[in-house]
Amino acid sequence: MSSLLPKRVTITDDTMREGLQIESPDIPVSEKLRLLDALGETGAKVISIGSFAHPKWTPSMACIDEIAQQFVPKPGIRYTAAVFNKKGFDRADSYYPKIDVRGRRFGTHVELCDSFARRNYNRTQAQQIAGMEGSITGAKAAGAKTASVALGNPFGSNFEGPFSLEKRMEFLAMMVDKWHDAGIRVAKVSFLDAMGWNMPHEVRETLTAIRDRYPEVETFHMHLHNTRGATMASFYEALMLGATEFDTSIGGMGGCPYCGNGRAAGHVPTEDFVHLCHEMGIETGYDLDKLIEAAAIAEEVVGHPLWGHVSKAGPRPHDDELYPLEMPFVETLEEAAHFRKGPAVYEGQISPWQQGSALIGGAQA
Question: Is position 63 annotated as part of the catalytic site?
């Protein structure tokens, strides 16, 4: 393995925000609280409870204040939320320290796609760039020593087509230079790929270029939608280059109403990525069994199957978890859940195994 492979990663579970924002607004608050409570048992260290957005544009978040008031925080977890302007920040910050949005104080963000900036934030790309000066001035006045920069939709756009490495580096340099002019080091780079254009080779070339040009960057944060099914491979490439912060959702739940893909612009399932990290020897702090149970609860809450794999097939079995040789046919998803529900789920199926017989798998040896 590469020497850049991290020993530990921080995985923010974004189910309550990214996941539920694209689901039915009719899900009862009590059910959302049940899901949030289950997520709190998984070992997550950071959980976003939702977004303080206008209910006209994000109707599923109309109940965010009820959730903020009613949920019972669990020890050792930083609960945060998405905010998009000062009004949203002030609403969320009124619940501090129960909800902490102050960790995002010093940073700048620009969308490479002007069309998405207009659709998602009701601001032009030019307005985002102009607004950087105020953010940097405020950070300097507060005595900031380090800052973060975020590239929105850095790999391409459903409305404007692909973006080159040169364009990504151009926008990154523009932000980094502004922070440097203020005497502030850029320690973190985030990728916010709402339209799911990421491909593993482009992630690799981008992170490599940034590491080579800006050795001051200590942290890479990956928020990549799994719209085209390539994001687990992109996450793997990011891991190999030392990325330590990732956003995921239970069962891959998530999406964006402004990118043209809706729920299809989902996330990497939290349980699948945690399983990958654990098999690679990377610590996450998560309890995979409890994540799988949370995924089952999530399917009950949203009322339809989700898209995770490990929650349905189980993790790779080791030692005393290996399947018994005499296991009969397993065909349905319900039967495949024997790893957590026990052998009763496949009771009555025909068996391909006969001890001491030459008949295996129905074929004559």
Answer: no
